Amino acid sequence: MFNLKAPFKPTGDQPQAIEKLTENLKNNVKDQVLLGVTGSGKSLTYDQSVIVKSRLTSAVREVKIGAFVDQYMSKNYAFSYEGSQIVSSPDMRERFQALSWNPKTCVSEFCDISYLTRHLSPSIIYNVTTGCGREVTLTGSHNLWILRHGKLKLVPTEEIKKGDYVPLPREINIDKAPLESVDITKYINAEVYCDYYDVLGKNEDLSDAVIGATLSPNKRRAILNGDEAISYSSVSNFLKDKEIQIPVHIKNSTECPSQIVLSNAFLTFLGIYIAEGHAISRSTLVSVHEREMKKILFNALDVLGTHYFERRLDPGDIQIDSAVLNEFFKNCCGGNSHTKRLPDWFMELSNDQLGVLLSSYYSGDGWVEHGRVKACTASKLLASQLLYALLRFGIVGRVSKKRKKVSGSDKEPGLYYE
Fold first, then answer.
1. Which of the residue ranges 229-243, 286-300, 397-411 has the most confident prediction, judged by mean pLDDT?
2. Taking the CB of residue 3, how many other CB atoms lie within 10 A of it?
């Protein structure tokens, strides 16, 4: 028997666990397993963002933790324990790491995720806000490292105090090669079609194999006669590992490439859209008044082969008449100022590519004031993502909430993030 001394006060059900463990030791019970660390309520709420890295593909993503856990709960075996559903990392088909802070080295690093767990939220949860405007919503028993009176301490959320310091990363060091293209069809909710002869002209054997394997004889004849288009989903698996660009469209729309090449021109266009664009019905509207920006925008649209024009009564408003692109922009980057976000692959961009995207965004929504570069958005998610993206360059940002009234509007001032 020995005495264990530590500067920690037992909380929750820990006193009962300690008492039981001690009793068993006195009764010469040699093997004991203490359950309850995983799934014990130390959790983030559903919409909190985390940075995860796949150990299989090395892909890095910023994700909502709830949706991430739900996705992999559905793909892997989960067992239940005291009201929680738990997936053990070794049982997962794809394993992940999370961006974490190491208290020994005081450096941010990716660490293996051992378990994924979900359970009902407790009746009391806590919103922690830092002086630089970062926020996180946690359960009271979730542990946080804090700096208090010059000393690092690990405390549950319910015990942190105003004036405590919470460690945040000063840089996210990710070495990424340029991302060449993205599949536009993954962001389109409607049925996507392509022309049989576009596939035939690229790979005759492939096209015949697809049509013979997936379609009825009557449908096959209609497609061969040019009376009907073929569903892109029926050929996408065959094209997945092949460098074949197929024009696609949705019902009553013009064609657009299935893969969008992430050129500097397109990334500049995307940054302008996030700052100054919105989706209207089956068209996209982007406001650009600078001559050089217009030139870059028109160049990107010409490469995509889509129809666009500048509105005569509203100079600077560029209307893009492509239902496919409209779906892509809306589902990839948000359709209006309140839903705007960076694309879900922004962490996969190289630093040069991300720099182009951010530069064009700040050219639309940003300004310089008192030696600081600022931007303003109505989207809380976009504000958070910008802080993550800037850390790729070692730039530590701050965010504050402000009430602002939209010029020319009679509505009450809305909440913005600056």
1. 286-300
2. 4
Tokens of 343: 């694309």
Q: How far is CA 209 from the centre of its chain?
A: 36
Number of DSSP helices (H) and strands (E) in the chain, helices first:
11, 25
> Strand 115-118 and strand 317-320: pairing?
unpaired
Instruction: Specify the amino acid at residue 417.
Output: Y
pTM of this structure:
0.81
Question: Radius of gyration of the chain from Cα atoms?
Answer: 26
Output the CA torsion sign for 248, 288, 264, 64: negative
What pLDDT is recorded for position 231?
Answer: 75
Q: 25 Cβ partners below 8 Å, 6+ apart? A: 1, 32
Largest CA distance in the chain: 88
Strand extents, DSSP E, 89-195:
96-102, 107-112, 115-118, 125-129, 135-139, 143-148, 151-156, 181-183, 193-194
Query: What whole-number distance in Å separates Cα of residue 57 and Cα of residue 298?
Result: 35
Length of the chain: 418
Lowest mean pLDDT among 87-91, 269-273, 349-353, 406-410: 406-410
In the predicted structure, residue 212 carries a pLDDT above the cut 80: no
Is residue 373 classed as helix, strand or coil in its secondary structure? strand
- Cross-strand pairs, 85: 80, 118
Please give the helix or strand (H or E) that residue 231 lies within, else none: strand 230-231
Identify whether the C-beta of residue 134 lies closer than 8 Å to the C-beta of residue 307. no
Question: First-to-last CA distance in the chain?
Answer: 59
CA distance 415 to 337: 11
**Cα 117 from Cα 240, distance rounded (Å):** 33
- Looking at residue 299, what DSSP letter applies? H
> Higher-confidence residue: 203 or 4?
4
